[in-house]
Design brief:
Blueprint: E1 2-7, E2 10-13, E3 18-26, E4 33-39, E5 46-52, E6 58-60, E7 68-73, E8 78-83, E9 92-99, H1 105-108, E10 117-118, E11 122-127
Parallel strand pairs: 2-11
Antiparallel strand pairs: 1-3, 3-8, 4-5, 4-9, 5-6, 7-8, 9-10, 9-11
Length: 128
């Protein structure tokens, strides 16, 4: 089992920055990749960014490319999401997920169904 806890959400003005953290514990040696997803009220959960645990390859949704940066601190088993130039449409609950399976990862990292573990989420609100 892997446990995930998100930190760092809050209220920020448009154009501002925020950094989210996702702390992983338990059998973290089983993790192949981790991802950030978000869900706004009345909408489906959508992919934001992902990173492979071993070689730190990163992947981004087009909507956040150039504004968000995903990274991980190996020694701390923690994944980060640095968010800059925030927009009101970035408002959502942000979730981190962990995936143990490396099959087709580079072509399927954005599917919510492939992630084995999820955190409870952290609210990000961007005011205009």
């Amino acid at each position: 089992q892997v446990q995930l806890v998100e930190f760092g959400g809050g209220l920020v003005q448009a154009g501002g920055s925020l950094r989210l953290s996702c702390a992983a514990s338990g059998h973290t040696n089983r993790i192949y990749g981790m991802g950030w997803f978000r869900q706004a009220p009345g909408k489906e959960r959508e992919f934001v960014a992902a990173i492979t645990w071993a070689d730190h390859s990163t992947y981004y949704a087009d909507s956040v490319l150039g504004r968000f940066t995903v990274s991980r601190a190996s020694a701390e088993n923690t994944m980060y999401l640095q968010m800059s130039s925030l927009k009101p449409e970035d408002t959502a609950v942000y979730y981190c997920g962990a995936d143990e399976d490396n099959v087709y990862w580079s072509s399927a990292y954005y599917y919510t169904t492939r992630y084995d573990y999820w955190g409870r989420g952290t609210q990000v609100t961007v005011s205009s």
